[in-house]
Amino acid sequence: MSSEGGAGGSEHDTPTGQGRAAGRPEDPALSPVDGSQTLEDAGHDRAGTPRRSHLVRQVLEWVAIVGVAVALALLVRTFVVQTYYIPSGSMEPTLQVGDRILVIKLAYRVVSPARGDVVVFHAPSDEASQCGSVPVADLVKRIIGVPGDEVSSRGNFILINGQVLHQNWPHTAQLGARIVPTYLKPGQYFMLGDNHTQSCDSRVWGPIRGSAIIGKAVLVFWPLRDFHRI
C-alpha cells in the first residue's frame, strides 16, 4: 500500500499545466495529505488482523489436539491396556523385580479367565494384615483354580480335583505352605505366585472374585533385555 501512496504523491507533485486540466478537482484518494497515511495504516491493520487470527487458530487447534490425545490416552488406560511395575519377587522366575508389564483389560470381556493365566487384580482388603506387608492396591499372580475346582496339595504337588496339576510354566519346585482343600464357588479363582515359597497368595487370604480381576498380563516390555511374552 505504501507504493500506492508514493504514486499518489508523485502525481500530486505534477504541475497542473502538465499533468491535468486546469480547474479539475484533485482525486482525494491520491492526496498525499493524511490520505496516503490513512491508506498505509489501514493496510497494516488488514495485514495484521489475519496474522493474529491465524496464530490464535493455530493455538486453538493445538490445544484441541492435545486435549483429544490426553482424553484418548485416559480412555485407553482405563478400559483397554495398562502398564504395571513389579516390586517383589513373588512371581519369579516369570517376572523379575523391576520388570514392567503390559496388561490387557479387555482380555476377559468375551472369554473367562483360564487356569495358567497371569493376571493383575485388586488386592483383598485384608492382604496387608494377613501377609504382614505394606498395603498395595493391586497384585499379580497366576490362576491355579477356576470355578468348580477343588484345589489342594500333597507334598510339593498341587492337586486339582484330586489330580496332579502339571505346571507348564516357570516356577519353583518347592511348594512351601500347603494348600488347604478349597472348593471354588461360581465366580471364584485361586491365585498362586510362581515363586511358591516366597509368595503370599490364596493359600493365605483365600480365593478372589472374578470381578476383582483387572486384566491379563501378556508382555514384559522393560527392561528391553528381558522383553518377552508372558
Q: What are the defining features of this structure?
A:
230 residues, alpha+beta, Umud Fragment, subunit A, 8-stranded antiparallel β-sheet, 12 strands, disordered N terminus
Structure report:
The protein is an alpha+beta fold. The protein folds into two domains: 76 residues, no CATH class; 148 residues, Umud Fragment, subunit A (Ribbon), CATH 2.10.109.10. The protein contains five helices and twelve strands. The strands form two sheets. Strands 1, 2, 3, 4, 9, 10, 11 and 12 form an eight-stranded antiparallel sheet that branches. The protein has a four-stranded antiparallel sheet with strand order 7-6-5-8, with no helix packed on it. Strand 6 and strand 7 form a beta hairpin. Helix 1 packs antiparallel against helix 3. The longest helix is centred in the first third of the chain and has 45 residues. The two termini are 71 Å apart. 21% of the residues are buried.
